[in-house]
Design goal:
Blueprint: H1 4-35, H2 37-46, H3 53-63, H4 66-91, H5 95-100, H6 105-108, H7 110-133, H8 135-144, E1 152-159, E2 165-172, E3 177-187, E4 194-207, E5 214-226, E6 232-233, H9 235-238, E7 243-244, E8 249-251, H10 285-294, H11 299-310, H12 314-327, H13 334-360, H14 366-386
Antiparallel strand pairs: 1-2, 2-3, 3-4, 4-5, 5-6, 5-7, 5-8
Helix pairs in contact: 1-4, 2-3, 4-7, 4-12, 4-13, 7-12, 10-11, 11-14, 12-13, 12-14, 13-14
């Protein structure tokens, strides 16, 4: 049951949380913008809007990245807010009467852990729903800093979320068109043998006339179908036309109905063509599992996938680590609390980054790379927290 003290602590903590969130997110954006200011200026110039046009490009770039920044900085913001609010309580001697009334410190800070658990759930929703939904806009803004919205990319070999392989010779962003001999390959799920191969002289992303939904329309090419044993099916055996003309082959989207078991289905979008080694960070866990199933050698995908379960727990782990330093020692200095917070965050994020890189390089297993920071700092936090005098 929420009492007056709980409401007071929650109100004070929420104020600290908002201040810390705005401050840390603002500093993150300012630092990132400073490092990329030349790219922003070039992107604005390519759009014909130099000068104040830089601000427009920066707004486009960072407005879609707020969920990503929130996900990365959330544990640090939570720890800073909790330590700041508790240090203020100690500074004003507000914890003394609470203890004198017979209420333990553990009971006093219970609302903070409830908030941490709620924030953990919010992080999961953010990484599984909001960030994947904005992935297209994120990749588009990345393209702005790599030569503008009309940039073209050559010789791309990509795998979509359905496990289909796209061999793209050239993509023209301004026309939403693939030029050159495109090769799309789909596989049998049970043995990963080739199921369908479609080659085309060009492909264009445009709305289908029948329902107005945009899809990939392939022109002037051939289609080859194969059974589960790898045998190529003739036109009669596979009941299909091996050749097609202008817009003769349409890649279906996920959710489209078809009675043809060999038809290629893909959720591959033009924005997925923008090359980025960070693109897997913007995908949901279900999509990551499909990518990893199609290519088990992708250790980087496995590390990110396991991290989806481990990283949200860092909210609680950092609280366990940081709060004993402002509770157990009766710390009355806000500055001292800030220093401790910085040291803890630097240690945790440093170990997390190191393990992630070791996992990508296969020095550590993906499972160990994702969970090792939690395994190191979690027990340490419990030990420190257990030593607090209530």
């Amino acid at each position: 049951m929420v009492n007056i003290i709980d409401r007071y602590i929650i109100r004070s903590f929420l104020f600290s949380y908002v201040v810390c969130a705005v401050t840390l997110l603002g500093l993150t954006i300012i630092l990132d913008a400073f490092l990329q200011i030349k790219d922003f200026m070039e992107a604005a110039h390519s759009q014909g809007a130099p000068g104040l046009g830089v601000l427009s490009v920066m707004f486009q770039y960072y407005s879609v990245r707020l969920p990503v920044f929130f996900h990365t900085t959330s544990p640090a913001v939570l720890l800073a807010a909790a330590m700041f609010s508790m240090a203020q309580f100690n500074k004003n001697n507000e914890l003394v009467p609470i203890r004198a009334s017979g209420i333990s410190l553990f009971r006093t800070i219970t609302p903070l852990f409830f908030f941490a658990m709620a924030l953990t759930g919010l992080l999961v929703a953010n990484q599984e729903v909001l960030i994947p939904a904005m992935a297209g806009r994120i990749r588009y803004t990345e393209s702005l800093l790599r030569g503008g919205a009309d940039a073209s990319f050559d010789y791309l070999d990509l795998v979509d979320d359905m496990g289909n392989n796209w061999d793209i010779p050239r993509y023209e962003r301004g026309e939403d068109r693939i030029k050159g001999t495109l090769l799309v390959t789909a596989y049998h799920r049970e043995n990963r043998l080739v199921r369908v191969q479609v080659t085309a002289e060009s492909a264009r992303w445009k709305r289908t006339r029948e329902d107005g939904v945009p899809r990939w329309h392939l022109s002037h090419g051939t289609e080859n179908r194969y059974d589960a044993a790898g045998k190529r099916l003739s036109a009669e055996e596979g009941n299909y036309d091996t050749r097609f003309g202008e817009d003769g082959y349409v890649i279906l989207r996920v959710g489209d109905r078809t009675a043809d078991p060999f038809r290629i289905v893909s959720n591959f979008l033009p924005t997925d063509i923008f090359p980025s080694d960070r693109s897997i960070l913007y995908q949901s866990s279900s999509n990551l599992r499909k990518v990893y199933a199609s290519d088990p050698s992708r250790s980087d995908v496995a590390v990110v996938l396991y991290g989806r379960f481990a990283f949200p727990l860092s909210n609680i782990v950092l609280l366990l680590l940081g709060l004993p330093f402002v509770l157990g020692t009766e710390c009355k200095s806000t500055f001292a609390g800030l220093v401790v917070c910085i040291v803890i965050c630097a240690a945790f994020y440093g170990i997390h980054a190191l393990c992630t890189e070791l996992g990508k390089e296969q020095t550590l297993s993906p499972l160990a790379a994702a969970w090792l920071p939690i395994a190191i700092f979690g027990p340490l936090g419990i030990f420190l927290f257990d030593g607090v005098r209530t």
